[in-house]
Amino acid sequence: MPTSCCALNCTNRKDKGSRKKFFRIPAEPGRRAAWLRALKRSDFEQGKKNPTAAWTPRGHERVCSDHFISDEEMIADPPPESVETLRDPLPESVETLREQLTKVQEEKCKLEQFCESLQSEADNLREERDHLQEQIKKSSTSASNLTDAKCKLFTGIPTVALFMFVFRLVSDFIAPLKSMCQQDQILMTLMKLRLGLKNADLALRFSVSASTVSKVINRCIPILAVRLKFLIHWPSKETVKRNLPKKFRKKKILKL
Questions:
Q1: Is 219 exposed, middle or buried (0-12, 13-18, 19+ CB in 10 A)?
Q2: Which of 21, 143, 197, 232 lies at a 20 to 30 A Cα distance from 185?
Q3: Residue 112 vs residues 103, 116, 124, 207, 235: alpha-carbon distances, Å
Q4: One MF term in GO for this entry (predicted)?
Q5: Other beta carbons within 10 Å of 182
Q6: What is the H or E stretch that residue 64 is in?
């Protein structure tokens, strides 16, 4: 078993090349008691249940030379008077600890300043991102930024509220896409019917591919035809005759 020091908080071991000396605790009762008093060991430090019981050293335990005041007293069997000079290893000086604390505080201040600069930069980038997203949103065609004037121009429907009414009639039958929401699909289909725009033009306006435009229109037109059929009102034959212009009423043959 390697020789190590039994003093509290001491981790010295007897290694090759080490100049430290390790002394056996004397067996003579008087000197032994003096050594044990100086070591101030108890069962509590060793983790036993009874903290008041006296510590009993084993035969292999030693005390290293760090716990003696002078080298002159470090002989093979230290005299009894040197026992009272046993001490724990000295802690670091207060000045050293203060210097270390100052360095830690300086590093902390630098880190806090660096974090503040990073936070400020992140806030600026976030504002710039939001501004760019707002510009893209305004410049692109979408149902989210639709106005009454745009709605009438693009679809022929006079107001956005009426457009939303039409959308609610067909929304349950139109599946959303990853690249387009349901409202944009209806808007694009109505723009195709109203303005006759090319698929490439619609693809640029809605930031999708031309194949997506074709797919959406081919799917939405049949749904609109079925769901909005009840909105188409055909007047009766008598109503048509009654409201014909005078020029057409004079003709004897009228095919309706």
A1: middle
A2: 232
A3: 14, 6, 18, 43, 78
A4: zinc ion binding
A5: 18
A6: strand 62-64
Task: Look up tokens 């991102």; give the residue.
Answer: 129
What is the number of alpha carbons within 13 Å of residue 214 lying toward its C-beta? 4
pLDDT tens for each residue of 219-254: 999 999 999 988 888 888 888 888 888 777 765 554
Identify which of 86-90, 94-98, 184-188 has the greatest average pLDDT: 184-188
Q: What gap in Å lies between CA 20 and CA 4, rounded to an integer?
A: 11
Q: Where are the domains of the chain?
A: 22-85, 91-139, 143-237
Please compute, for residue 129, the number of CA atoms within 13 A of its CA located in the half-sphere on the CB side.
Answer: 6
Two tokens at 117? Answer: 């600069």
Which residue(s) pair with 64 in the sheet?
Answer: 22
